[in-house]
Amino acid sequence: MLEPLVIPASDGLQAALRLGIAGLVGLAAGIEREWSGHATGPAARFAGMRTFLILGLCGGVAGVLSAAGLPVMGAVLLAGGVGLVIAAYVLAMRHPTTDPDGTTEAAALVILALGLLAGIGQLALASGAGALVVLALGEKRRLHGMVAKVGEAELQAAARFAVMALVILPILPTTPLPFGGDISARGLWTLVLLFSGINFAGYLARRAVGPERGYGLAGLLGGLISSTLVTMQFARRSRAEPQHASALALGVIAACSVLPARLLVILGVLAPTVGQAAMPFLIPPALVGLVMIGVAFRRTKGGGEAAEADTSPLHVMASVRMAVLFWLALIGIELLERRWGSSGVYTSAVILGLTDMDALTVAMARFGAGESMTVVAAKGVAIGVLSNTVFKAGLGVTLGTPAFRARVLAGLALLGAAVAVGWLV
């Protein structure tokens, strides 16, 4: 004879909460099915609001039983719910007018699984996944419209990028290379991914709003990662697309304008006092860059354009060359540091700021932990920004076309002057 299952009061409240979340997840999916019309009419599917609520509770009870030490009973109950969904789909397919779409049945299986997650205590995961399921069910037309707009070039580029990131990257060694600091083969390939991602973002932005604004948007996104990489990539790209030199220059200015804001966020998290001291140096260039971007966007017209049919949106080989060039720049900086040394905060800021502002900012945040060194650390960040600006100006002059070079130098000069004004004030 089976012993009755006795649940303490505190555990009972917890179980009730879990079942409530499981039921709400099912109810939300059921309401969407009712609202979209899939649960009514001559071609209605088997489940509506009430059925989905019960399926969510079924999965929740199975999870509670499993958590209470009765996994077999929970598995039997869950298997019964799965069998019900499968049987309903088989019966629906026998009807001659039934749409073969099995979205409702698939959603029912997912609701059972999410109810199980809620029942074993994974409330946040179950709630978040449930919200995502309801969103996917409700946005059917928009999702299908997005898929219809995706061409062969975009699909192939996304697949290649997935292979580069998920297949090639994990198998590369992490042992530092002989030169170039602590960068490894995996680190170099990460740079290739960043360059390719910037290319892909620029491609999609051009398709959405046209080249004049598209490169600016791509620069803004790329600046969240590395304005130096954006400058290298867009400068080289100006030779392949000289007609878009001004748009590419705008992308560089946009990326460089994001840099001060990004550094302030890092300092605000790691060392708020240093971040406050660095505001006079970093806020002016961010504001000046914002004004330049706003004026440029108002002067340009949006509008999509056909993507290049003869090139990949990723430009993988060009990205590989840019990563190697970046590595060579790191080697050159390392040799200069060995030759001249890096004693002193400001000298270190000049050298490290040439390529890696994030590393410099983290170092200055640690250095400025002491109250007496706060201002020195903030000025070190400002010097690094100026050094980085000069380095990017050199990249624009070396790699870009004359038209690109002129616009980038003008924009970077204004940003550098804004930093200098903050220093003087």
What order do the helices and strands come in, and which of them pair?
Elements: H1 9-36, H2 49-67, H3 71-93, H4 103-119, H5 123-138, H6 140-149, H7 152-171, H8 185-209, H9 211-223, H10 227-240, H11 245-270, H12 272-299, H13 316-340, H14 345-352, H15 357-367, H16 374-399, H17 402-424
Protein model, in words:
Helices cover 78% and strands 0% of the residues. The chain has 17 helices and no strands. It has helices at 9-36, 49-67, 71-93, 103-119, 123-138, 140-149, 152-171, 185-209, 211-223, 227-240, 245-270, 272-299, 316-340, 345-352, 357-367, 374-399, 402-424. The radius of gyration is 29 Å and the shape is elongated. The termini are far apart. 41% of the residues are buried.
Helix content estimate: over 70%
Coarse shape: elongated
How many DSSP E strands?
A: 0
Q: Report Rg.
A: 29 Å
- Could you give the distance between the termini? 85 Å
Q: Number of helical segments?
A: 17
Structural class: mainly alpha
What is the N-to-C order of secondary-structure elements (H for helix, E for strand)?
Answer: HHHHHHHHHHHHHHHHH
Assembly type: single chain
Unreliable stretches, pLDDT < 50, 5 or more residues? 304-310
Beta-strand residue fraction: under 5%
Summarize this, please?
The chain is mainly alpha-helical.
What would the keywords be for this entry?
425 residues, elongated
